[in-house]
């Protein structure tokens, strides 16, 4: 631990929202400047997984939990090879991390990876502002990047918007790789990496699945070259309306068992002919109530999405691939949280059954995927 994490005064920093509201605080992590879409995460824990979730690429994450960094950073909980958030906003960073697995402080980790953040601001006021006005662009500035507010605001307004952003290829693997089945191998799955988290193939491997993780640019030929029993569509950053649907339509046409999560749910929805739209402020956190309408059960789930599928809640829809219905719904706001096809083995959820971090209520969805693959073999 360096002395700086022991509470030495950090440089002044300012956060500027695109509607002109500003918050003055202290630099946290790297000193400099950064831009992105301001979003808030309501998780009380799991900051290491949040920071390394590729779906947060180009987003500045505001933590609503006031005290962040308490357990430091360890060598096991990263969900990808680096921190992806564009910036980090916390109220009150831990001065001294304390956990048996901690190998360094969060502050040091942010500095090492050049992640610009801000602390000591009223994150509750900022969150309420984003809830009332909606997600918007933001900049964080410290050190040499500080300037008068008008100049900073003009720079925030130059930053790219999230609507229309095609980001999956920026975060996905360039080379295919294999995550071996744990124990006896029962199935092969081709997982299209649009920003996959490490825990996701692990959850499949635990169920005897050998997972071939393929780049976002994989063709149908690449997918079928691994002779998959099933195809998986991962989570990922950006606007789902930018994704080329050729491969997924091919998978649907061949009736290969298909499971999608988050971004995967959105692009399955689009392939079925539904629209996607931007939510006012999105769902991010590990305490979101969802109802599985196929069983009536309610589960508490991990979310990270700013877009959603526009599908009718109370009727079966006719699609080019047979009938489809909304299988899951968020109990906070009735947002579509899952889709299922009724005439072929394909389904998806808008949230994170891999639960890293988060409650494990939704783990049964990986078992449903296994059942679909078993059903196809029978
Ligand atoms: N976690 C994800 O896959 C996010 C999907 C999409 N980028 C969204 O914001 O809604």
UniProtKB/TrEMBL annotation:
CDD domains associated with the record: GATase1_CPSase
Matches recorded under Gene3D superfamilies: 3.40.50.880, Carbamoyl-phosphate synthase small subunit, N-terminal domain
Organism: Streptomyces enissocaesilis
Name this protein carries in UniProt: Carbamoyl phosphate synthase small chain
Subunit field text: Composed of two chains; the small (or glutamine) chain promotes the hydrolysis of glutamine to ammonia, which is used by the large (or ammonia) chain to synthesize carbamoyl phosphate. Tetramer of heterodimers (alpha,beta)4.
NCBIfam families the record matches: CPSaseIIsmall, PRK12838.1
Pathway per the UniProt entry: Pyrimidine metabolism; UMP biosynthesis via de novo pathway; (S)-dihydroorotate from bicarbonate: step 1/3; Amino-acid biosynthesis; L-arginine biosynthesis; carbamoyl phosphate from bicarbonate: step 1/1
Positions of the Carbamoyl-phosphate synthase small subunit N-terminal domain: 11-141
UniProt keyword terms in alphabetical order: Amino-acid biosynthesis, Arginine biosynthesis, ATP-binding, Glutamine amidotransferase, Ligase, Nucleotide-binding, Pyrimidine biosynthesis
Protein family (similarity comment): Belongs to the CarA family.
Top class in the EC scheme: ligase
Function of the molecule: Small subunit of the glutamine-dependent carbamoyl phosphate synthetase (CPSase). CPSase catalyzes the formation of carbamoyl phosphate from the ammonia moiety of glutamine, carbonate, and phosphate donated by ATP, constituting the first step of 2 biosynthetic pathways, one leading to arginine and/or urea and the other to pyrimidine nucleotides. The small subunit (glutamine amidotransferase) binds and cleaves glutamine to supply the large subunit with the substrate ammonia.
Enzyme Commission number(s) from the entry: 6.3.5.5
Active-site residues annotated for this sequence: 262, 352, 354
Chain sites annotated for binding L-glutamine: 55, 236, 238, 263, 266, 304, 306-307
Chain positions covered by the region annotation CPSase: 1-187
The reaction(s) this protein catalyses: L-glutamine + H2O = L-glutamate + NH4(+); hydrogencarbonate + L-glutamine + 2 ATP + H2O = carbamoyl phosphate + L-glutamate + 2 ADP + phosphate + 2 H(+)
């Amino acid at each position: 631990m360096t002395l700086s994490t022991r509470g030495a005064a950090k440089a002044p920093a300012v956060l500027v929202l695109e509607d002109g509201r500003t918050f003055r605080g202290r630099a946290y992590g790297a000193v400099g400047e950064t831009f992105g879409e301001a979003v808030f995460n309501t998780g009380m824990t799991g900051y290491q997984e949040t920071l390394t979730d590729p779906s947060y690429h180009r987003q500045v994450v505001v933590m609503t939990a006031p005290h962040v960094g308490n357990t430091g950073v360890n060598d096991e909980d990263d969900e990808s090879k680096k921190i992806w958030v564009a910036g980090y906003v916390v109220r009150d960073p831990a001065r001294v991390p304390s956990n048996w697995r901690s190998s360094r402080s969060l502050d040091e980790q942010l500095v090492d990876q050049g992640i610009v953040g801000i602390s000591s601001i009223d994150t509750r006021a900022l969150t309420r502002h984003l809830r009332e006005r909606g997600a918007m662009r933001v900049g964080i500035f410290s050190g040499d990047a500080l300037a008068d507010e008008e100049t900073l605001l003009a720079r925030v307004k130059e930053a790219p918007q999230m609507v229309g952003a095609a980001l999956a290829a920026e975060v996905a693997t360039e080379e295919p790789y294999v995550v071996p089945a744990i124990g006896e191998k029962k199935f092969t799955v081709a997982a299209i990496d649009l920003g996959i988290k490490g825990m996701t193939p692990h959850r499949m491997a635990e169920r005897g699945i050998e997972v071939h993780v393929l780049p976002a640019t994989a063709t149908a030929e690449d997918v079928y070259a691994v002779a998959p029993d099933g195809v998986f569509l991962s989570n990922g950053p950006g606007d789902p309306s930018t994704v080329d649907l050729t491969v997924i339509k091919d998978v649907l046409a061949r009736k290969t068992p298909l499971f999608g999560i988050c971004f995967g749910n959105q692009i399955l929805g689009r392939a079925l002919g539904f629209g996607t739209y931007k939510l006012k402020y999105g769902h991010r956190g590990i305490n979101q109530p969802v109802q599985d309408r196929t069983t009536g059960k309610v589960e508490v789930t991990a979310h990270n999405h700013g877009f959603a599928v526009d599908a009718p809640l109370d009727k079966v829809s006719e699609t080019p691939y047979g009938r489809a219905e909304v299988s899951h719904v968020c109990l906070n706001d009735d947002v579509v949280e899952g889709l299922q096809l009724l005439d072929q083995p394909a389904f998806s959820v808008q949230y994170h059954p891999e639960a890293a971090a988060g409650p494990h209520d939704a783990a049964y969805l990986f078992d449903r995927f296994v059942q679909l693959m078993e059903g196809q073999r029978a």
